[in-house]
Amino acid sequence: MNLPKLQSAQSWDQLRKDESFWEALRQDILPQHLYHCRWFGGKASVVQQVFFSQKLLLKSGFQHYYLLLIEVFFRESYAHNYFLPLAIAESREKLPAQAVLAEIQLADGSFYLIDAVHDSGFHAALFRKIVNHEMLMEGNNRVFFRAHQELEMEPEGFRSQLLNAEQSNSTLIIQDRYYLKIFRRLFRDKNPDFEMNEFLAQQKLFENYPKLAGLIWWEPGPGVNISLGLMQEKVPNEGDAWPWMLKEVEQYFKNGDLAGLSAIDKWPLVSPLKISKLPAALQQNPGLDFFKRIRTLAQRTAEMHLALAAVKRDRHFAPINYNGDFTVWLKNRLIYQFDARYNLLNKKLESLPENARLLAEKVLEQKDLIINFILGFDEEQLRSLRIRIHGDYHLGQILIQGHDFFILDYEGEPESTIRDRKVKQSPLKDVAGLLRSFHYAIHAVQKNQNLRSLEHQAAGQSLYQAISGVFLHSYFKIAFQQQLDIGYRKEITYLLHYFLLEKAIYELGYELNGRPDWAIIPLEGILDITDEIKRHAY
Ligand SMILES: Nc1ncnc2c1ncn2[C@@H]1O[C@H](COP(=O)(O)OP(=O)(O)O)[C@@H](O)[C@H]1O
Ligand SMILES: O=P(O)(O)O[C@H]1O[C@H](CO)[C@@H](O[C@H]2O[C@H](CO)[C@@H](O)[C@H](O)[C@H]2O)[C@H](O)[C@H]1O
User: Fold this and answer.
1) Judgement on whether residues 485 and 352 belong to the same structural domain of the protein
2) Does the Cβ of 171 fall within 6 Å of ligand 1?
3) Interval 491-511: pLDDT, tens
4) DSSP-derived secondary structure for 19-45
5) Keyword annotations for this protein (predicted)?
6) For 323-387, where are the alpha helices, taking DSSP H only?
7) What ipTM, to 2 d.p.?
8) Contacts of 226 (CB under 8 A, 6+ apart)
9) CA-CA to 369 of 20 to 30 Å: which in 198, 199, 488, 494?
10) How many angstroms is it from 172 CA to the middle of ligand 1?
11) Cα–Cα dist 98/61, whole Å
12) CB of 413 closer than 6 A to ligand 1?
């Protein structure tokens, strides 16, 4: 690849002085470079201008790095802020192409200008600064590094690596003990992941999340906290719960007496079910051990919510009632989202495979029912409380450790603004997220293995209602015993229907934009839920 070239008469550590260098970087290099970055969320838009809103020099021994806050303006009249740390490298041999911005000729030599997350010296510098509680400062412009436990640099040398996952952030694994998540898209506010982890760490009521080890944030002026980094202890694990569930579902279809499993009576989507009441065929396959694990997952979910609901004094976390403002916000947001999805679906209809197109047409026919249901939300009918929730709860956010589960990534729904992600919601919204994820896993296996017979579909439905039922039974039991206010029975059913529909609509957009061959799953989900809504005649 032909790299752009930049030059300066200054050395790397004095480069601040050379305005023309930064102008060239801002105007000629960054607008193109951003499109190669995984974390850049504006790929579907056209970059018009890039500005540096802040620039600080980070020194660590003889190494120098520049920390940049960049503001990207799009032709579509909106803007994003990102964090871009810069380093120089003498060679680009071991670097992935997207790590390198330009070749640069400076007073102290020729280098490659790179994203500093690819430089292990930068990892060590960040960690050292966290360990020592350091601060970078130029006037009122400050970056804080704070450890949340006793940390030390390992004497026999520092080890780190950049996690190579499809991510919207950059994660460093440090000394194989800590995960340092560096937020790339920035907001003039605490990131919810940062805020929720700080809260859970102070409060010590919930155990099954990665323990907080350190934080990094930027204060460009008094009272402004821009979260830059969140460091947590590594949770030893056997992978996340998504592949685990896929494997269980695959086994289920492989081992199963399909005739018996598909003959099981159907029951409503959100009914709790005691393990001992499971039909015999399901007690054998996938088996009681599997359902006990689902019970543990429900317990951890309820414990997370109990911890998030426990503090009354902190206004960011104190549980609150439903009110008119919330209802207006919820309806507007969901109607807007549904409209956008409806139009997108119409636009993509012809390009969808035959089976997806048939489902899409059915979903399009449900437009009035869906809109009426969304607009029917009435806070006067609701007695339960709203709390801070996980917000993007699915099987991929849960790590498996032995027979237990750890819950990660409290950043909230990626498409929402930071303010929207912090709005207090029913904890049942998270529960609905996970129920959708169970549905996803079953349908993903059916899709990948082409298990499309009526028997396979009915056996899939039996499994889905059993997993959901066992999860709900256990979650409700703990919620009722420990006074987590999720509402009276009818309210719970209504809220679960509402959030199942909301999540499936969200997923439809996510899939149509990112992986259209998966769109069939939320389409099926929406149709299941609209059937239930019709049965309840809300
Ligand atoms: N503390 C941790 N312990 C073990 N694995 C972790 C930890 N934090 C993150 N991971 C791994 O990194 C992946 C991405 O982390 P996550 O917080 O979900 O980042 P992102 O918000 O960018 O998706 C997780 O799915 C998990 O596999
Ligand atoms: O990347 P994030 O963890 O923030 O979540 C986004 O990507 C998820 C896909 O990986 C998406 O989840 C959807 O697909 C999952 C299976 O891949 C499934 O378990 C979820 O239920 C389904 O919503 C998630 O919605 C999106 O925010």
Assistant:
1) yes
2) yes
3) 999 999 999 999 999 999 999
4) HHHHHHIIIIIHHHHGGG-TT-TTTTS
5) ATP-binding, Nucleotide-binding, Transferase
6) 324-348, 354-365, 367-375
7) 0.94
8) 69, 186, 187, 188, 189, 217, 218, 219, 220
9) 488
10) 10
11) 27
12) no
